[in-house]
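Dear support,

I submitted the protein below through the web form. The confirmation email said the job was done, but the results page showed an empty box. After a refresh the structure appeared. I'm attaching both so you can tell me whether what I see now is the final result or a partial one.
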Amino acid sequence: MNFDVNAKLEEKERKSGKRVIGFVLTVGTKPSVAKFEVEGLATLEGKNPDIDKMLEVTTERKIPLLLNRVYQSVFTSTYLLAQMMDTSYPPPDMLSSGEMNKNGSEGHVEWGGKEEANEAEKPEQTKKVKAKAKR
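What the results page shows now:
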């Protein structure tokens, strides 16, 4: 079974030592049997360089580390729902395993963030990252 993974991350609040990120994570089966969607807020607190590391898209991972942490947090719920619906569930390490970006299902990640400047809101910047997953 293959899975389509789509995610959107959007910065909602930025202060020194704190960021609040809204997320929507959608995982669908291929062929289309089930679709799991989770939406929420993730709050990052700590030193600004450490927060930036959680949000940076590396060439190795192709996704922000935060997205992997969110997926790990919601995996149990997704697994339980899949069991109740008697359908396949995505692997627990789908976003961090070596299966990412190999032949299989495709998806994308959108990252919208605000620039830090005198608490004035600036237009959002969106980065799209391609991600593939296969189970």
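Response: this is the final, complete result; the empty box was a page-load delay. The longest strand covers residues 2-15.
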